[in-house]
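Q: What does the assembled structure look like for these inputs?
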Amino acid sequence: MLDRTHRFRRASKVAALLIGVVTLASCGDKTGPNNKQNALRPAGPYARQILHLTEPFFWIAVVIGLGVIGGTIYVALRFREKPGEERSPKQIHGNTVLEISWTIIPALILAVMAVPTVATIFSLAKRPTGNVVNVTVSARQWWWQFTYTDAGNGVVTANELHIPIQTPVNLTLEGPPACSPTPCYANGVIHSFWVPALNGKKDVVPGRTSFLKLEADKVGEYFGQCAEYCGLSHADMRIRVFAQTRPDYDAWVKSQIAQNVSEAALERGVDNADWACATCHSFKSKVPGAVAPNLTHLADRTTFAGAIYKLNYDNLWRWVYDAPSRKPMGDLQSHMPNFSAAGMSQQEAKKIACFLLTNTATNPNPPPECAGQ
Amino acid sequence: MTTVEDATALVHAPEKKHSRLLDRPRATTGPWSWVTTVDHKKIAIMYGTLAICFFMVGGVEALFIRLQLARPNGTILSAARYNEFFTMHGTTMVFLLGMPIAAAFGNYLVPLMIGARDVAFPRMNMLGFWIFACGGIFLYSSFALGGAPDGGWFGYAPLTSTPLAAGYLPGRGADFWCVGLIMLGIGSVATAVNFLVTILNMRAPGMTMMRMPVFVWMILVIAFLTLFAMPPVTAALIMVFMDRNFHTNFFNAAAGGDPLMYQNLFWIFGHPEVYILILPGMGIVSEILPVFSRKPLFGYSIVVFSGIAIGFLGWGVWAHHMFVSGLGPIAVSAFGLSTMLIAIPTGVKIFNWLATVWGGAVRLRTAMLFALGFIAQFTIGGLSGVMHSIVPSDTQQTDTYFVVAHFHYVLFGGLVFAVFGGFYYWWPKFFGRMLNEKLGKVNFWLMVIGFNLTFFPMHFLGFEGQPRRTYTYPSGMGWDTLNLLATIGAFIIALSVLVFLVNVIYTARRGEEAPADPWDARTLEWSIPSPPPEYNFAVVPVVTSLDDYWHRKYTEDDEGRLVRLPAGGADGADGDQTPVGFDPHSIHMPSPSYWPLIFAVSLPTMGYGFVFKNWYLLAAGVIVAFFGLVGWGIEPPTEPEPHGTEAH
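A:
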């Protein structure tokens, strides 16, 4: 008996130590890295609402989980049979009171959980009105298009979403438009829009329109990416959100609507050897490209190609030269082709990159390599 | 031997009314006996062996996935290869490990546990195995024949259903995937029907439903689930294949099709499928815990009913896989609440298991360690599952590494641990030798450490924004360390599986021979020799209570304490109930056959015909199938050698 007590003490010590370590480990760095894509570091009311709902249940789960794990270790050690010992334990076949109580108690906990859960579902589904910004989100393999649909707006941009702070942004998530001739199949796949710091995710489904809202508290940059598997470059379909003060945002909208260089001049500039860029891309502000991003204000963006590359001279000319080697695009029917295979020289690609960096910027600041091009 | 055989053939020749072609195969030893066997135990061993092979193939795929993700911007795999590997990893673990391993344990144990000599439909049983084998090989042949499946194990339309020409997915993989899964589904349904009829009709006298071991109950529940879950997914797969190859528009939104219809159909299968995978694990644990605690299962009936409740509720929760698909707040609220309900019967089981061990005489043998590991780890998976039912939380967690952590805690920490526990527990019964305990403990602890190191960090990775199914991630996201830990953990898991294999080989060569009842166990399979003879029970047992075999060995005193019955007071305490003068040949056992195999082989033949639109191959497959079914239908029911000149 003495021995058993001793073993029991040792077991409790082990269990206590384990529980302590796990608890410390989970309290140590509750929020994880500040990578701008972290659901544990919400930057707006909707993401915060979700986290506040999750947190208490997370801790309930931690307590129950540690209880069961601790319990498992406890029963295993406490009732362990010594070598050579043969006990005849009391044969307990069940206990109705116990069994009913551990059916009812979890049911009660769940009932308590259900109330705020349903309330939050409906609250997050509510479409804000009044001072809001409306943006239509289209998802393509493998990039995002944002169209600002408010009166007096009409900006079309790719991968980078600018929003005013402390203002609800209503996103209309729209599957690709029906293609012609109907029926045809160039109609896209399911993607999912997700910027963890601003809200949960929502799928963009062909043939459907869904709603998601964002709001940021403070000026800052927030990352996101496609969260529904959408083929080869699913990992290369990222999002950047720039939350700006209202005046900055208004100025940005104005700059994006402006057509600094005429559409014709832009097309001529990139298309000097008949590469047919305008077949897919648009060079007119407010007008989306057929299957590729609008490039009128390309140089105002910080990234390109699904926000996987920083927009700079080096990355851009290599992309123009041979995009498929820079981002897996497989056999996709319409994607940025390998122009080098079609006879484009590196010199030519560099020239196009310089042209774009110079002529699609609101405040042109061409890189030194472009001097003289 | 040959001479004797020829001689008998000669003697019987004039009596033959059918052609030799229809003769049933005779081999009882050697490879051919395995190929043509209808013995549920041999079929079970083949199921288990092949499933473990696929487990290792899927594991190697996982190791490559982890190597690719060990560092940001990994270059071990191309995007295309990565997508193939994660798709085939999931498909393999669900369809080529999870379901067949349940069929393996179920096949071996259900007849023994209910006191039957075989299953209800031995040849259909054989068919189920060979379809599994053919389907698995068919799926993997895609790697050499134009690209492996790369649309995810869930194969969402329209990614998978759009014709190849659009290039949404490179290669023929999605075609292989559709056809392969339809094929495997046929095998699963055959197996399920067989289990259902066996359990409902072939129980020994006195083996009432409420005296059946929990494991048998769980097999019964998953047989029902399989039977009803396969049709919707088969329909969905046919639609995907039609859309892809014959330009139908089931899921083509541009022509009025609906991509969400695919999700509904898939998850109406997919969620019950999750329970098809985990319930046998729960059954195994419910067998192991009482034996190694020397106590009856606490609240047998509530554990059984919880399993049934999970089976039923499993049909009402499918849309929780679609919380971000845009179903609207009313639908997601309803499915969120129904998902929470699942936690109640699951929790009941966990508490009952703990109460079973409580106060027992606990022997921490390897099997018991795995069962205890199941409880702890499955609980973590269950709790993170409840977190998914909080729909707004799920909109952050779904499609991230949090989900990967969640279902690996259920399916690896749960199911795989139960399976390994089952191996250590029943190995002596299967093969007549005890797996080595020292190696077993190394196996267990390596697996616990490796598993938790791999999957626990993934909870955090998910919250910190890492989506699943991505072949790479940029540096500077703060995910590097946890991903590296996960990769190290994956290799520790691989090491533990290696230790298991070493143990298997060691045991086969030098393992301690197992008595009939090495664990002092409770259920009928331990009342017969290890390994059991072909006919299982020399005398069909008459069952008088739950844990009947235990009650032949023990009784309880007034205080409920265990009292061993005097030796000889109960029959079969030494496991051998064979009556004196017993003649095994007096028991009529089903004869081997090769027709189910011929029919099974026709399926991949047709499959290749469909995938490559080679109508000759398709026609050949149809002819072989017809041939197989007709032969099956008209082969004589009698044994090839009714007078038993051959050694059995």
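Chain A has three domains: 2-83+95-125, 132-243, 258-373.
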